[in-house]
């Protein structure tokens, strides 16, 4: 019997299938769901920081310097009398913006390079892979530090664009290597040969026919590298190469005067450190669960 379902019915069924996939993820991946809840709380706190934070994060109060946790300042104050809780809330915005943008940029460029390398093969593939081997030989923090030193600072809308690039560049070779492996098997499929026979351009084959088929590993890597990008941003800020004062940033809160007063005021390093650990842990939980959910090799 012929299928008489209308296009409208299929469009209506699409959101239902998406809701079903979301519910399946929640029920089969409880740890990943817990990580996603933490991520959502961080995003809400960062987006609505002006409404959520109890104090201005940059306003100094020399009458309340190094005040211990109280009802007015639940996480205490720093050496300048600034509210630590407010700076952590605003720091979530800094961490998420830099982490999301740099991870998306690095993962997208890496996926494109990996798929193109697999598609062209031969000398092109060999040249790209040797360049990736060189980049992978450097520890990611060292490569990010070198990029920051080379690029310098370039603020745009309050975001250091060069810092984002410095974090994104070390991500590119890692994503390129993984997506290339996935694209090698796709290159041999019949529909790719059919696209070549039909006279489609190389760009169209790579972008329209191969790249969408590596979305599962791409999404997994994108999520995983957000955690690494947040940790990199915190590390660079701690070393004085990332976000600068008075911008609230978790890594910056662990350096400078705060590090000097950690004995007298342990809350100065305790709460920012917990924020970094919780954010990285949440994204790692969500990324691992997303891998288990999307990759058929990990399904029972």
UniProtKB/TrEMBL annotation:
Q: Which domain of life is it from?
A: Bacteria
The alphabetized UniProt keywords are:
Cell membrane, Membrane, Peptide transport, Protein transport, Transmembrane, Transmembrane helix, Transport
Q: Which Gene3D superfamilies match?
A: MetI-like
Localization terms from the record: Cell membrane
Q: PROSITE patterns per the record?
A: ABC_TM1 (PS50928)
Q: Which family does it belong to?
A: Belongs to the binding-protein-dependent transport system permease family.
The name on file for this protein is: ABC transporter permease
UniProt source species:
Aquibaculum arenosum
